[in-house]
Amino acid sequence: MSNPHAEAVAASHVAKVIGRRTILADINMAVGPGTRVGLAGPNGAGKTTLLKILAGLWQPTAGVVTVGGVRLPRFTGPAGVGVVLEDARLYPYLTGRDHLRASARMHRVPADGAIERLSNRLSLSRFLDTPVRRLSLGQRQRIAVARALVPQPRLLLLDEPTNGLDPDGVRDLRVLLDGLSQNGVAVLISSHALLDLARMVDRALFIREGSIVADEGAAGPLDRLDALWQTLFPRGAG
Fold first, then answer.
1. Same domain for 72 and 100?
2. What angle do CA 90, 96, 97 make, to 5 degrees?
3. Which residue from 182, 181, 178, 111 is spatially nearest to 146, judged by alpha carbons?
4. Distances (CA, A) of 17 to 21, 54, 133
5. Within a 13 Å sphere around the CA of 88, how many CA atoms are in the beta-carbon half?
6. What is the rounded average pLDDT of the residues 4-9?
7. Residue 217 to residues 36, 43, 187, 202, Cα–Cα distance (Å)
8. In this structure, are residues 43 and 208 in contact, taking their beta carbons and an 8 Å threshold?
9. Interior/surface letters 93-129, b for 16+ CB within 10 angstroms, e for the rest
10. From CA 44, how far away is CA 73, in angstroms rounded?
11. Does the residue 15 lie in any domain?
12. For labelling, which of 161, 175, 195, 215 has a CA lying 20 to 30 Å from the CA of 47?
């Protein structure tokens, strides 16, 4: 049983090695209830791998992951966690409503209430009954986020959530995350879009070549975070 006072998710000395390649090396991090933390880094830094391990989709080579103070089960994902990966799979011939209903059935929650709540919060009504294959990338992203929120998770993991979103979509997502954090939901967001990320999180973890190399508060001038990015990830490096 999870401890409501424990960290929403924590990693202790987590590593991931595939073949001879080290993807993650000795990751130590934690996200507390009601906080929004960003994982910032370029493509290939290890952000998505870390999210998949925290979500229970991949097993770490070494280290321990806890969710709500409970060690992550070896072969099942944790309860109370919503996940949206960059390659989130949506069925092209189903509508957004179909996807939300399927998630509600899987999590055994009333479908109509969940759909109404999320449609209002994510402005889905215009395209909720349109087949996914006819939606824009940004609209698909909103459906994927809504699907992850159907069971009202205590932890939300988002991988590049602003990809394909127009400015209105980014603003809606930011407002949604504000509301979630005020209700005690922890959010971990992976992104290489530093400007969007800084506006959505309280704290940013910078990850480079599989290691967390900086832990910075996101409040304050964006120039400060941009300068840190340029120092950690200089153009032409590598």
1. no
2. 130
3. 111
4. 6, 16, 36
5. 26
6. 80
7. 11, 22, 15, 6
8. no
9. eebbbbbbbebbeeeeeebeebbeebbebbbbeebbe
10. 27
11. yes
12. 175
DSSP 74: S
Residue with structure tokens 């424990």?
6
Looking at the 3D structure of the chain, how many domains does it have? 2
In a domain, 28, yes or no: no
Verify that 146 and 175 share a domain, yes or no: no
pTM of the model: 0.88
Contact in structure between 61 and 108 (CB atoms under 8 Å) = no
Residue 180 belongs to what domain range?
1-22+34-80+154-160+167-189+201-238
In a domain, 175, yes or no: yes
**Within-domain flag for 182:** yes
User: Same domain for 75 and 3?
Assistant: yes
Rounded Cα–Cα distance for residues 142 and 147 (Å): 9
User: φ and ψ at 219, to 5 degrees?
Assistant: -75, 150
pLDDT single digits (tens) 206-223 = 999 999 999 988 777 778
